[in-house]
Design goal:
This protein is of the alpha/beta class. It is built from nine helices and eight strands. Bound molecules: zinc ion.
């Protein structure tokens, strides 16, 4: 049940037919892990905390640098040199004290993924490299937890929701990692992609359809266009092939 305070806090979204008190209670009971607390994670964390996702686990091994601040709006200059996961925990807890926020200073690896992600209802990929994304993809397949992928570079971005063993996984669509290097990025483009990931995650947790699973959404911030591309499972995928 929602407290009186929560009913006031979430008034503007409780009034939505598609969410309502039932969807809000589902959000309150749910838990989400965001892996990466950078440009994508800033938007995911802020909007999921504001919306009332009951438990947020923020996982990141890095510290805040000055060159992060063009896009990582969770942080300010007073956070420079501090661990992102812990500063994000503090910021999100300050935004909403009716939820639980847990900062974990760690990099998700094949060895620790299962223990870090075992109790969550959805994982949001806010990483910046495909090696880490493949680890997340594999862990979510093994744990049977939905994964909301997001990525961006310069003025382009993409979002995809993966339902393990039902839809294409990340590796079905991206069988080989693109070159890994720090890419140029306009901060608000990362914010747009992260906001779309938050929307998808909140819908998954609250049971709102359509989930848009099995589709890759591609955003072009230069021409301000969106494309929704159907993606198919690859039976020979090294990560999910033959497991459907
Ligand atoms: Zn696959």
């Amino acid at each position: 049940m929602l407290t009186e305070r929560e009913q006031t806090r979430y008034r503007r979204q409780l009034a939505m037919d598609v969410l309502g008190p039932r969807g809000q209670e589902e959000l309150k009971k749910s838990s989400l892990a965001m892996v990466g607390a950078g440009g994508l994670g800033s938007a995911v964390g802020l909007y999921c905390a504001a919306a009332g996702v009951g438990r947020l686990v923020v996982i990141d091994a890095d510290r805040v640098e000055l060159s992060n601040l063009n896009r990582q709006v969770l942080y300010g200059e007073e956070d420079l040199g501090q661990e992102k996961a812990l500063r994000a925990q503090r910021r999100l807890a300050a935004l909403n004290r009716d939820i639980e926020v847990e900062g974990v200073v760690a990099e998700v690896t094949a060895d620790n993924a299962a223990s870090l992600l075992q109790d969550v209802d959805v994982v949001v990929d806010c990483l910046d490299n495909f090696a880490g994304r493949y680890v997340l993809n594999q862990a979510c397949l093994a744990l049977n937890v939905p994964l909301v992928h997001g990525a961006c570079t310069e003025m382009q971005g993409q979002v995809m929701t993966i339902i393990p063993h039902q839809t294409a996984c990340l590796r079905c669509v991206f069988p080989r990692p693109p070159p890994s290097r720090p890419s140029p990025i306009l901060g608000c483009v990362a914010g747009t992609v992260g906001t779309l990931q938050a929307t998808q995650a909140i819908k998954l947790l609250a049971g709102i359809q359509p989930g848009l699973a099995g589709k890759l959404l591609v955003y072009d911030g230069h021409y301000l266009t969106w494309d929704l591309i159907e993606v198919e499972k690859n039976d020979r995928c090294p990560q999910c092939g033959g497991t459907a």
